[in-house]
Amino acid sequence: MTDTQNALVWISGASSGIGAALAACVPWAGARVIDISRRGAPGLEHLEADLADPASWEAVAVSFAQELAAFAGDRVVFVHAAGTIDPVGFAAEVESDAYQRNVLLNAASPQVLGQAFLAAASGRPGRRHLVLMTSGAANNVYRGWSSYGAAKAAVDRWVRTAGAEQNERGGVQVVAVAPGTVDTAMQRMIRETSADAFPQRQKFVDLHEGGELSDPVDVATRMWALLDAGLANGSVVDLRDLPG
Ligand SMILES: NC(=O)c1ccc[n+]([C@@H]2O[C@H](COP(=O)([O-])OP(=O)(O)OC[C@H]3O[C@@H](n4cnc5c(N)ncnc54)[C@H](OP(=O)(O)O)[C@@H]3O)[C@@H](O)[C@H]2O)c1
To answer: Which residue, by CA, sits nearest to atom 12 of ligand 1?
Structure first.
Protein backbone atom coordinates (compact mmCIF):
# COMPACT_ATOMS: atom_id res chain seq x y z
CA MET A 1 0.00 0.00 0.00
CA THR A 2 1.28 3.49 -0.85
CA ASP A 3 0.96 6.38 1.61
CA THR A 4 -2.01 7.70 -0.29
CA GLN A 5 -3.72 4.37 -0.92
CA ASN A 6 -6.42 4.74 1.62
CA ALA A 7 -9.27 3.21 -0.36
CA LEU A 8 -9.78 -0.20 -1.95
CA VAL A 9 -12.57 -0.28 -4.52
CA TRP A 10 -13.97 -3.14 -6.57
CA ILE A 11 -16.27 -2.16 -9.43
CA SER A 12 -17.88 -4.88 -11.50
CA GLY A 13 -18.63 -3.76 -15.03
CA ALA A 14 -16.02 -0.99 -15.07
CA SER A 15 -15.34 -1.79 -18.74
CA SER A 16 -18.41 0.17 -19.88
CA GLY A 17 -21.12 2.64 -19.00
CA ILE A 18 -21.84 3.55 -15.40
CA GLY A 19 -19.12 1.26 -14.05
CA ALA A 20 -16.49 2.88 -16.29
CA ALA A 21 -17.67 6.31 -15.19
CA LEU A 22 -17.49 5.27 -11.55
CA ALA A 23 -13.91 4.13 -12.07
CA ALA A 24 -13.04 7.40 -13.82
CA CYS A 25 -14.21 9.59 -10.96
CA VAL A 26 -13.43 7.67 -7.79
CA PRO A 27 -13.25 10.48 -5.24
CA TRP A 28 -10.37 9.19 -3.11
CA ALA A 29 -6.85 10.07 -4.22
CA GLY A 30 -4.62 7.04 -4.60
CA ALA A 31 -7.49 4.57 -4.41
CA ARG A 32 -6.81 1.10 -5.75
CA VAL A 33 -9.58 0.22 -8.20
CA ILE A 34 -10.20 -3.33 -9.41
CA ASP A 35 -12.51 -3.88 -12.38
CA ILE A 36 -14.39 -7.17 -12.48
CA SER A 37 -15.61 -7.80 -16.03
CA ARG A 38 -14.91 -9.86 -19.13
CA ARG A 39 -13.22 -7.18 -21.26
CA GLY A 40 -11.34 -5.06 -18.74
CA ALA A 41 -10.58 -1.39 -19.23
CA PRO A 42 -7.39 0.49 -20.16
CA GLY A 43 -5.43 1.55 -17.11
CA LEU A 44 -7.53 -0.41 -14.65
CA GLU A 45 -6.50 -3.43 -12.65
CA HIS A 46 -8.58 -6.30 -14.02
CA LEU A 47 -10.08 -9.34 -12.40
CA GLU A 48 -11.37 -11.16 -15.46
CA ALA A 49 -14.68 -12.87 -14.79
CA ASP A 50 -17.80 -13.88 -16.65
CA LEU A 51 -20.22 -13.19 -13.83
CA ALA A 52 -23.07 -14.95 -15.62
CA ASP A 53 -21.10 -18.14 -14.93
CA PRO A 54 -21.36 -19.19 -11.27
CA ALA A 55 -17.95 -20.84 -11.58
CA SER A 56 -16.43 -17.33 -11.69
CA TRP A 57 -17.88 -16.19 -8.38
CA GLU A 58 -15.40 -17.99 -6.15
CA ALA A 59 -12.45 -16.04 -7.59
CA VAL A 60 -14.22 -12.80 -6.76
CA ALA A 61 -14.91 -13.98 -3.21
CA VAL A 62 -11.25 -14.94 -2.85
CA SER A 63 -10.23 -11.49 -4.07
CA PHE A 64 -12.44 -9.85 -1.45
CA ALA A 65 -11.11 -12.04 1.35
CA GLN A 66 -7.43 -11.89 0.45
CA GLU A 67 -7.20 -8.22 -0.43
CA LEU A 68 -9.19 -7.15 2.62
CA ALA A 69 -7.06 -9.26 4.92
CA ALA A 70 -4.00 -7.37 3.66
CA PHE A 71 -5.54 -3.88 3.51
CA ALA A 72 -4.97 -1.39 6.30
CA GLY A 73 -6.63 1.67 4.75
CA ASP A 74 -9.81 3.36 5.82
CA ARG A 75 -12.32 2.86 2.98
CA VAL A 76 -13.49 -0.33 1.30
CA VAL A 77 -16.13 -0.40 -1.46
CA PHE A 78 -17.74 -2.90 -3.80
CA VAL A 79 -20.04 -1.50 -6.47
CA HIS A 80 -21.67 -4.28 -8.44
CA ALA A 81 -22.49 -2.43 -11.66
CA ALA A 82 -22.24 -5.37 -14.07
CA GLY A 83 -25.60 -6.17 -15.58
CA THR A 84 -27.33 -6.97 -18.82
CA ILE A 85 -30.67 -6.34 -20.47
CA ASP A 86 -30.04 -9.16 -22.94
CA PRO A 87 -32.11 -11.04 -24.04
CA VAL A 88 -34.92 -8.54 -24.54
CA GLY A 89 -38.15 -10.33 -25.40
CA PHE A 90 -41.12 -12.12 -23.95
CA ALA A 91 -40.14 -14.94 -21.59
CA ALA A 92 -41.76 -17.57 -23.78
CA GLU A 93 -39.95 -16.36 -26.88
CA VAL A 94 -36.29 -15.73 -26.00
CA GLU A 95 -33.40 -18.14 -26.15
CA SER A 96 -33.20 -20.20 -22.94
CA ASP A 97 -29.43 -20.09 -22.48
CA ALA A 98 -29.34 -16.30 -22.75
CA TYR A 99 -32.28 -16.07 -20.36
CA GLN A 100 -30.44 -18.24 -17.85
CA ARG A 101 -27.34 -16.04 -18.11
CA ASN A 102 -29.48 -12.96 -17.50
CA VAL A 103 -30.93 -14.53 -14.34
CA LEU A 104 -27.53 -15.61 -13.06
CA LEU A 105 -25.86 -12.24 -13.67
CA ASN A 106 -28.66 -9.88 -12.68
CA ALA A 107 -30.47 -11.77 -9.92
CA ALA A 108 -28.08 -14.34 -8.47
CA SER A 109 -24.66 -12.70 -8.65
CA PRO A 110 -25.63 -9.58 -6.64
CA GLN A 111 -26.74 -11.78 -3.76
CA VAL A 112 -23.86 -14.23 -3.91
CA LEU A 113 -21.11 -11.65 -4.47
CA GLY A 114 -22.79 -9.27 -2.05
CA GLN A 115 -22.76 -11.98 0.61
CA ALA A 116 -19.10 -12.71 -0.12
CA PHE A 117 -18.21 -9.04 0.25
CA LEU A 118 -20.11 -8.80 3.54
CA ALA A 119 -18.38 -11.93 4.85
CA ALA A 120 -15.00 -10.34 4.09
CA ALA A 121 -15.83 -6.79 5.22
CA SER A 122 -18.17 -7.21 8.23
CA GLY A 123 -16.68 -6.29 11.57
CA ARG A 124 -13.60 -4.61 10.07
CA PRO A 125 -12.64 -1.11 11.15
CA GLY A 126 -13.15 1.77 8.74
CA ARG A 127 -15.85 2.74 6.26
CA ARG A 128 -17.23 -0.11 4.21
CA HIS A 129 -19.83 0.18 1.45
CA LEU A 130 -21.67 -2.32 -0.73
CA VAL A 131 -23.57 -0.70 -3.60
CA LEU A 132 -25.89 -2.62 -5.89
CA MET A 133 -27.59 -1.24 -8.99
CA THR A 134 -31.34 -1.29 -9.21
CA SER A 135 -33.83 0.19 -11.66
CA GLY A 136 -37.32 1.54 -12.06
CA ALA A 137 -37.93 -1.87 -13.65
CA ALA A 138 -38.04 -3.33 -10.13
CA ASN A 139 -41.42 -1.68 -9.60
CA ASN A 140 -42.92 -1.48 -13.09
CA VAL A 141 -44.00 -3.97 -15.70
CA TYR A 142 -41.87 -3.70 -18.83
CA ARG A 143 -42.95 -6.40 -21.27
CA GLY A 144 -39.79 -7.98 -22.65
CA TRP A 145 -37.77 -7.44 -19.45
CA SER A 146 -39.21 -10.16 -17.18
CA SER A 147 -35.92 -11.47 -15.83
CA TYR A 148 -34.33 -8.01 -15.66
CA GLY A 149 -37.23 -6.53 -13.66
CA ALA A 150 -37.45 -9.58 -11.40
CA ALA A 151 -33.71 -9.36 -10.75
CA LYS A 152 -33.88 -5.70 -9.75
CA ALA A 153 -36.83 -6.43 -7.44
CA ALA A 154 -34.70 -9.15 -5.85
CA VAL A 155 -31.81 -6.71 -5.47
CA ASP A 156 -34.11 -4.27 -3.65
CA ARG A 157 -35.34 -6.88 -1.18
CA TRP A 158 -31.84 -8.23 -0.63
CA VAL A 159 -30.43 -4.77 0.06
CA ARG A 160 -33.22 -3.87 2.49
CA THR A 161 -32.67 -7.13 4.39
CA ALA A 162 -28.86 -7.27 4.37
CA GLY A 163 -28.73 -3.55 5.23
CA ALA A 164 -30.97 -4.11 8.26
CA GLU A 165 -28.70 -6.97 9.31
CA GLN A 166 -25.54 -4.91 8.91
CA ASN A 167 -27.17 -2.13 10.90
CA GLU A 168 -27.56 -4.58 13.76
CA ARG A 169 -24.07 -5.99 13.45
CA GLY A 170 -21.34 -5.96 10.86
CA GLY A 171 -21.29 -2.25 10.06
CA VAL A 172 -21.14 -2.39 6.25
CA GLN A 173 -23.36 0.18 4.53
CA VAL A 174 -25.57 -1.65 2.00
CA VAL A 175 -27.50 0.43 -0.53
CA ALA A 176 -29.13 0.05 -3.92
CA VAL A 177 -29.12 2.88 -6.42
CA ALA A 178 -31.44 3.32 -9.39
CA PRO A 179 -29.48 5.64 -11.67
CA GLY A 180 -32.28 6.85 -13.91
CA THR A 181 -32.03 6.51 -17.67
CA VAL A 182 -28.34 6.76 -18.49
CA ASP A 183 -26.57 7.13 -21.83
CA THR A 184 -24.76 3.77 -22.02
CA ALA A 185 -24.45 0.71 -24.23
CA MET A 186 -27.40 -0.80 -22.38
CA GLN A 187 -29.66 2.04 -23.49
CA ARG A 188 -28.36 1.70 -27.05
CA MET A 189 -29.29 -1.97 -27.01
CA ILE A 190 -32.79 -1.12 -25.76
CA ARG A 191 -33.30 1.28 -28.69
CA GLU A 192 -32.01 -1.35 -31.11
CA THR A 193 -34.55 -3.99 -30.08
CA SER A 194 -37.80 -4.42 -31.96
CA ALA A 195 -41.11 -3.10 -30.68
CA ASP A 196 -42.32 -6.68 -30.97
CA ALA A 197 -39.75 -7.85 -28.41
CA PHE A 198 -40.12 -4.71 -26.28
CA PRO A 199 -43.43 -2.88 -26.77
CA GLN A 200 -42.35 0.12 -24.62
CA ARG A 201 -39.28 0.68 -26.80
CA GLN A 202 -40.50 4.04 -28.17
CA LYS A 203 -40.39 5.64 -24.71
CA PHE A 204 -36.62 5.07 -24.65
CA VAL A 205 -36.15 6.25 -28.23
CA ASP A 206 -38.00 9.45 -27.28
CA LEU A 207 -35.89 10.00 -24.17
CA HIS A 208 -32.75 9.66 -26.28
CA GLU A 209 -33.99 11.93 -29.04
CA GLY A 210 -35.14 14.46 -26.46
CA GLY A 211 -31.64 14.59 -24.95
CA GLU A 212 -33.02 13.29 -21.67
CA LEU A 213 -30.54 10.50 -20.97
CA SER A 214 -28.27 11.20 -18.01
CA ASP A 215 -24.55 11.49 -18.50
CA PRO A 216 -22.74 8.49 -16.91
CA VAL A 217 -20.12 10.69 -15.23
CA ASP A 218 -22.81 12.90 -13.65
CA VAL A 219 -24.51 9.75 -12.39
CA ALA A 220 -21.24 8.31 -11.08
CA THR A 221 -20.36 11.56 -9.29
CA ARG A 222 -23.73 11.59 -7.58
CA MET A 223 -23.41 7.93 -6.63
CA TRP A 224 -20.05 8.46 -4.95
CA ALA A 225 -21.44 11.45 -3.04
CA LEU A 226 -24.25 9.24 -1.69
CA LEU A 227 -21.80 7.11 0.28
CA ASP A 228 -21.18 9.93 2.75
CA ALA A 229 -24.69 11.36 2.65
CA GLY A 230 -25.92 9.57 5.76
CA LEU A 231 -28.30 7.17 4.01
CA ALA A 232 -29.99 4.68 6.32
CA ASN A 233 -28.55 1.20 5.96
CA GLY A 234 -30.62 -0.85 3.52
CA SER A 235 -31.72 2.20 1.54
CA VAL A 236 -32.99 1.76 -2.00
CA VAL A 237 -32.74 5.15 -3.69
CA ASP A 238 -33.54 6.54 -7.11
CA LEU A 239 -31.23 9.36 -8.16
CA ARG A 240 -34.20 11.02 -9.87
CA ASP A 241 -35.88 11.44 -6.47
CA LEU A 242 -32.88 13.12 -4.88
CA PRO A 243 -31.90 16.77 -5.10
CA GLY A 244 -28.97 17.72 -7.31
N1 LIG B 1 -28.16 2.61 -18.34
C2 LIG B 1 -29.32 2.74 -17.70
O3 LIG B 1 -30.20 3.54 -18.12
C4 LIG B 1 -29.58 1.97 -16.44
C5 LIG B 1 -30.78 2.18 -15.78
C6 LIG B 1 -31.05 1.47 -14.62
C7 LIG B 1 -30.11 0.58 -14.11
N8 LIG B 1 -28.95 0.39 -14.78
C9 LIG B 1 -28.00 -0.58 -14.22
O10 LIG B 1 -26.70 -0.03 -14.15
C11 LIG B 1 -25.73 -1.07 -14.31
C12 LIG B 1 -24.74 -0.67 -15.39
O13 LIG B 1 -25.45 -0.57 -16.62
P14 LIG B 1 -24.84 0.23 -17.88
O15 LIG B 1 -25.97 0.96 -18.46
O16 LIG B 1 -23.60 0.93 -17.48
O17 LIG B 1 -24.53 -1.00 -18.84
P18 LIG B 1 -23.39 -1.23 -19.95
O19 LIG B 1 -22.80 0.04 -20.45
O20 LIG B 1 -24.00 -2.18 -20.91
O21 LIG B 1 -22.26 -1.98 -19.11
C22 LIG B 1 -22.51 -3.24 -18.56
C23 LIG B 1 -21.27 -3.70 -17.82
O24 LIG B 1 -21.58 -4.97 -17.25
C25 LIG B 1 -20.54 -5.86 -17.57
N26 LIG B 1 -21.06 -7.20 -17.78
C27 LIG B 1 -22.10 -7.56 -18.59
N28 LIG B 1 -22.19 -8.89 -18.62
C29 LIG B 1 -21.20 -9.37 -17.83
C30 LIG B 1 -20.77 -10.68 -17.48
N31 LIG B 1 -21.37 -11.77 -17.97
N32 LIG B 1 -19.72 -10.80 -16.65
C33 LIG B 1 -19.08 -9.71 -16.17
N34 LIG B 1 -19.44 -8.45 -16.45
C35 LIG B 1 -20.48 -8.30 -17.29
C36 LIG B 1 -19.93 -5.36 -18.86
O37 LIG B 1 -18.56 -5.76 -18.93
P38 LIG B 1 -17.98 -6.85 -19.97
O39 LIG B 1 -18.86 -6.82 -21.18
O40 LIG B 1 -16.59 -6.37 -20.20
O41 LIG B 1 -18.03 -8.15 -19.23
C42 LIG B 1 -20.05 -3.85 -18.70
O43 LIG B 1 -18.92 -3.32 -18.07
C44 LIG B 1 -26.51 -2.34 -14.61
O45 LIG B 1 -26.67 -3.09 -13.42
C46 LIG B 1 -27.86 -1.83 -15.06
O47 LIG B 1 -28.90 -2.74 -14.82
C48 LIG B 1 -28.66 1.06 -15.93
So the answer is: 81
What domain range is 33 assigned to? 7-180+217-238
Whether 187 is covered by a domain: the verdict is no
State pLDDT tens for residues 32-46. 999 999 999 999 999
Q: In whole angstroms, how far apart are CA 136 and each of 10, 77, 145, 149?
A: 24, 24, 12, 8
Total domain count, the chain: 1
Does the residue 222 lie in any domain? yes
Contact 240, 180 (CB under 8 A): yes
For residue 168, report the distance from its CA to the centre of ligand 1, in Å: 31
Whole-structure pTM over 0.85, yes or no? yes
Task: Judge if the beta carbon of residue 59 lies within 6 A of ligand 1.
Answer: no
Cβ of 16 below 6 Å from ligand 1: yes
